[in-house]
Please model this.
Amino acid sequence: MDFTKYIEKVDKDVAYIIKQEVKRNRENLLMIASENYADEAILQAQGSVFTNKYAEGYPGKRFYQGVEWCDKIEQLAIDRAKQLFGAEHANVQPNSGSQTNQSVYLAVLAPGDSILGMNLAAGGHLTHGAPASSSGKLYKSHSYGVNKDTYLLDYDEIAAKAKEVKPKIIVAGASAYPRQIDFKKFREIADSVGAFLLADIAHYAGLVAVKLFPDPVPYCDFVTTTTHKTLKGPRGGLILCREKYAKAVNSAVFPGMQGGPLMHVIAAKAICFGEALKPAFKLYQEQVIKNAQLLGAELIKKGYKVLTGGTDCHLILVDLRPDNITGKDAALALDKAGITLNKNGVPFDTQNPFITSGIRVGTPAITARGMKEKEIVMIAGWMDEVMKNSTDEKVIKSVRAKVLKLCGKFPVYNR
Ligand code: PLP
Model:
């Protein structure tokens, strides 16, 4: 794909930077758990003339003229999202995952109401009530964590916390939790205190769509997700809910949180949901999980502390405290070697969030390139080499050369 054909003629500076980013996409092992390679079709839709169009409102009920094709594309995206997740209602307009959660809160909470969500330090997301986010500023936020011995969600503790703080909404879901989430138990807890239940499956949505991760839709009042992580679509958000909340959710998104919807992104979302409905998507997700599980097992074999002993999904969390290297130093050295992942706090971390004691590693993007077991074993070996010799430029250089060679065998964006 020629990413800069027209940009080149207009703005050489921007064209140059985009070309460098394409090169980085091609020549690095992208292992940030929340990232993926959106297909060329998704990128093309986002560059389409829908960029030009204002379409405030919803299909059949807009505030502008000339929206006949906007209605068609948005309805297609809605229908496919509903089919994919078996949901009664879908809103495909949120511009991001954060805005999906903010919109649900706006739909059913008043300022000062309480939220019970997963602690950021334990693996939750900012929008689940963290003090720095609007969810923690506008609402009274309470949090639950993981068990300090098992690093797993402890549903009895969550139930006790819910009884204590009586939240108006409970948020299930995480950014860095490698194990399955029991949404049925969350429903029971929510019912025991009369709370709404929101599942934020931003990370797991691709796996949920093909039933390789527990399905929250039957148990939750609201399900939110991003579309750009395991779902492999454009950057953006999606809200699913019961029909009885459809009006409240739609009004919260527009005009509550946003203005004109990004119709070019909605076109790309329609493609994303269409792709996820195809049989090949399930095979892809199966491989994503197999790769993550093997990566965890290989790192454990090399002596690393992989939290919870492995994973049920697309990511692993490695606690580097026994290895005398911080998350920051590991991530920087690995990136230099062409293995791009992120430092991550581990539960009960004593390091500050800019340093951290761990790394989070994901397999969606390298699996999208076609990498399988053989490559995972090699990558685990290189990660070990780099983390054990993080200041040795010779080692980093030699791993960089091997990464480059491997990337050359699994081309991306070469259509
Ligand atoms: N929810 C969860 C669980 C996430 O992990 C993320 C992003 O990492 C978000 C919401 C927010 O998504 P966005 O970055 O699109 O606002």
Notes: The CA atoms of residues 107 and 247 lie 9 Å apart. The domain at 285-409 is CATH 3.90.1150.10 (Aspartate Aminotransferase, domain 1). The radius of gyration is 21 Å. Residues 34, 96-98, 125, 127, 173-175, 200, 202-203, 226 surround pyridoxal-5'-phosphate (CB under 6 Å).
